[in-house]
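Sample entry (349 residues):
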Amino acid sequence: MQAWGKQFMTKEQIEKKHMAELIWNAANPDEIAAVFGSYDSNLNLIQKKFQVVIVNRGTGVKITGPEENIRKAAEAMDVLLENTRKGTGINEQGVRYVVSMVADNAAEEVKTLTADAVSVTLSGKPIRPRTVGQKKYLDAIAANTIVLGIGPAGTGKTYLAVAMAVKALKSHEISRIILTRPAVEAGEKLGFLPGDLQDKVDPYLRPLYDALFEMLGSEAVERDLEKNIIEIAPLAYMRGRTLDHAFIILDEAQNTTSEQIKMFLTRLGEGSKMVITGDITQIDLPDPRRSGLIEAMRVLRTVDDIVIHTFSEKDVVRHRLVQDIITAYANYEHKNIQNHHERKRSKNG
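Predicted structure, serialized as tokens:
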């Protein structure tokens, strides 16, 4: 007697039925090796994120998994391959960023990052945006007279601004570069510093020197400093001046007072650009509420030809842990604020 009834597939049969395959190709084995990474490190990140299995068959790379997942895994590999062909290095942080953006359906935006370099370092390394946030920041600098770059450490705010300044100088769009920052101690008492005034303020300005040395070389920077083509000075030196035909960068602007940043903004002269960078989570002023940068963000948000660009933790291009640290602190501070409000409500209730 034949048994009638509905036959159910096992879990394994259902999973197998919904699996798809895709063959991904590169021009040669070297390109595949570059995309896969050292000891398949990039490959492992892609497989884990998209829950797929990737196998190098020699003649092609087979990706197996749910259809949508294999499509996204292939997109991520396409972006990494394009980076390889453009000479852009692929590190762990970069791979994590590409995978994250592709997962968020932003693959097309990531592909724009392999466009022409902004500048080139002295060693010949091209300087390109490494995140979509960095690309938008560079576009804003190119299209506007004043840009405020706000975001956490490691997002390239200052470095990319210096790269744009060097590019403008080399193309004769401006005749000099002026770099400045407030001389505020980062929570430490440095005590007496020997030497003349320049020697005393140089420690505060070292990040700006480092960026210039990497792009122009120490000899060229020293020569341009002597000729006043490049000027690196504390913010107090800007008072009473009009800065014409210059690319002016104010770094660490979160440590300016309201009066200082207003003074700086009104130095803008004919044919000049300004970039103001800062991290409003790292204010070293005695009273953080008096940060001129925070006030400027409120005051200038509707002014034409001024753009306020905000970076996120996704734009951090230092070690992967820097991004995780920033996120952890943001979550911790958010939780503290919530607890404070809850205690306040309980007390009032």
